[in-house]
Amino acid sequence: MSEVFEGYERQYCELSANLSRKSNSAALLSDYEQKKQKFSEIKVGLDDAEALIRKMDLEARSLQPSVKAVLLAKLREYKSDLNKLKREIKRVASPDATQAARDELLEAGMAGTHAVSSDQRERMAMSVERLNESSDRITQSRRTILETEELGVSILQDLHQQRETLLHSHQKLHTVDDAIDKSKRVLTAMSRRMTKHKWIIGSVIGALIVAILFILYFKLSH
Known about the structure:
This protein has 222 residues and is mainly α. 89% of the residues lie in helices and 0% in strands.
């Protein structure tokens, strides 16, 4: 679920409930200027609600198909809710709305209180329910984020340990490489000395052979 969408959704539900209350209170106003001011505020709120609907629509369409389908279905409910609210406000804004509301209060024995239609009560209850659902989703998202962070920390610790192990192995390999290089140098030196000794021994043997031949030649000639 998109946290951005949930943020817009929470704002819309709060705004929708607030507009419903303002619409109900505006119906009871007798002063023209006060009523005009109240409906100006309601109009601004409706514009904000439509802007939130558009933002939710754009956000929903940018998500993966499976998530987008769920959010667009929910968005259709909000659009329907907003249209009902507009019709209710239009009805309240009619010239006979104030007197009709007062007559309704007098007939019901509820003078001095605000009359809330069943449609408004249903809308407010729906808004509260959606706010609660949004809060639950936010709580679940935060829990998921915390679990993800804990998993991330655990993975980083494992990676750090593996890095230390690799560094230690690299150091061992470096030590082995140094020992091999030293062994190669020793063997090379020994090979050179053996070659040198072979030449010396060969020279000595050659000199001895020449000396022996010379002695034998001297004896034979006398």
